Amino acid sequence: MAKARRAIAKSDFVEKNLAAALERLAVAAAAGERATAARGKEGKQLAITVKRLSKKRASQAKRRLGASKRARKSPSGDTRKALRTAVRELAGTTKALSKAKALKAAHATEYAALRIASRRASGYAKAIAQIDRALGRSAD
Q1: Number of domains composing the chain
Q2: What is the Cα–Cα distance from 131 to 125, expressed in whole angstroms?
Q3: Are 90 and 53 in contact (CB under 8 A)?
């Protein structure tokens, strides 16, 4: 069977497709920069949250140790109640910390991929603009 011959592309068709591709690239570069900035702020907030919860967990662990020593030394209703409260608060903080760490890890992978994509898009846009200037064309 004979192959169907493809028509040769016209210059206006090529120019139109090239202009559309450059426009999409500019949109992608701008969106990438905006998303990177937003994700950066979000990442800082997550880091602050994880740090705060880690400190809180450490202080509550010390408090639990103290409460457990007091409960062993003089087992009364008040010391047992204080120990139960300390254990409950520590468990809640540990649970919140594990959730925050999981969110931070997921955010970090997404942020890294987003930064790479944003750099690629802006790099391509700059390179194409430089080539257009070298060829004497205006970059649209």
Answers
A1: 1
A2: 10
A3: no
pLDDT in tens, 29-83: 999 999 999 999 999 999 999 999 999 999 999 999 999 999 999 989 999 999 9
What does the chain look like in DSSP terms, one character per residue?
-PPPPPPPPPHHHHHHHHHHHHHHHHHHHHHHHHHHHHHHHHHHHHHHHHHHHHHHHHHHHHHHHHHHHHHHHS--HHHHHHHHHHHHHHHHHHHHHHHHHHHHHHHHHHHHHHHHHHHHHHHHHHHHHHHHHHHT----
Q: What is the rounded average pLDDT for all residues in the chain?
A: 92
The answer to whether residue 140 sits within a structural domain is: no
Residue 114 lies in a domain: yes
